[in-house]
Amino acid sequence: MQFSVTVLGSNSALPTSERYPTAQILNVSERFFLIDCGEGTQMQLRKNKIRFSKINHIFISHLHGDHCFGLIGLISTLGLLGRKSDLTVFAHSDLEKVLKPQLTYFCADLPYRVIFNHINPHQNMVIFEDSKITVETIPLKHRIPTCGFLFREKQGDLHIVRESIDFYQIPLKAIPSIKKGADYVNDEGEVIANHLLTKPAAATRSYAFCSDTAYDERIIPIIQDVDLLYHEATFLDDNHKLALQTQHSTAREAATLALKARVKKLIIGHFSTRYYDLSAFENEARVIFDDTSLAREGDIFSIPNTTRG
User: Residue 154, exposed/middle/buried by CB under 10 A (0-12, 13-18, 19+)?
Assistant: First the structure.
């Protein structure tokens, strides 16, 4: 089952000829969640061959333009493509105030509903849940209300051992309950223990997206042990004072947080336009946290589906 992140934009406030403002797509079993929507997002969706129609939920971390200026254009395009199903946008309540006049003016005949789900960026809480995944907010420390998002798979069913099912002559109607953990009792009253019939379910996977933020260890309990962490790294450590002033992070700080949270892999991005060669970011972070990668447009980071040990 797919669980992967595609980087659509990796730069900070100013787009360049090679780097776009922040946007990512999380693919969970062919359901697509758009995380932030900077200018040029829909162009990047096309470039990466991501079907617009599969995006039903959009999560906006905060209301700085490099994280949401692409939203009205995307909403308009979805209408022109004939979308009929609802689109849900999770964001600070001010986003609805800003977008409603634009929707009224530019998208009066929109053939689908845009549903604004207001979130409180200062609280850690579950804001979305379905049969496969939960999404919760990660309060961050920035100049305006900002939050990240933690995407976590729900535990799936146990795996059936086909040879055991055949050996014990288990009827098909009993398999759903066995996959949920039930033992099987045959017609003679003999109890066949569940562990004889199943293997452990696949391990759940998790992705934490930490948008614009100063270094803040208060988020460590929320992101502890995640499989994949994206954390902004706008500056190198030689601009640490500027990072403090603008409430952003350095590559060294992002790596330090990943180490303390014991995450499995770190992606860093949101690079300041003052840097052309990004290799120094990777080098600075890897001194502290070796499994660090740069977020680059078009990169895909997949978390494999493994069985629990």
Answer: exposed
**CB 121 within 8 Å of CB 146:** yes
Does residue 121 register a pLDDT over 90?
A: yes
Of 36, 66, 212, 227, catalytic: 66
Give CA–CA dist 226/214, Å, rounded: 20
109 tagged catalytic: no
| The two structure tokens encoding residue 232 | 């902004």
Q: Which residue has the tokens 């079907």?
A: 51
Does the structural domain 3-156+201-302 have CATH classification 3.40.50.300? no
Contact 96, 111 (CB under 8 A): no
What DSSP designation does 125 have?
A: -
In sequence order, the β-bridge partners of residue 134 are 129, 152
Q: Determine the Cα–Cα distance for residues 267 and 263; give it in Å rounded to an integer.
A: 11
> What's the CA gap between 158 and 178, in Å, rounded?
8
For residue 296, the number of C-alpha atoms closer than 13 Å in the C-beta half-sphere is 11
pLDDT attached to residue 28: 95
Q: Taking 70 as the threshold, does the pLDDT of residue 308 lie above it?
A: no
| Cα 117 from chain centroid (whole Å) | 17
pLDDT at 187: 82
- Count CA within 13 A, CB hemisphere, residue 216: 21
Question: Three-class SS of residue 164?
Answer: helix
E strands, 130-227, where? Answer: 133-139, 147-153, 159-160, 184-185, 191-192, 198-199, 206-210
Per domain, the residue ranges of the chain are: 3-156+201-302, 159-199
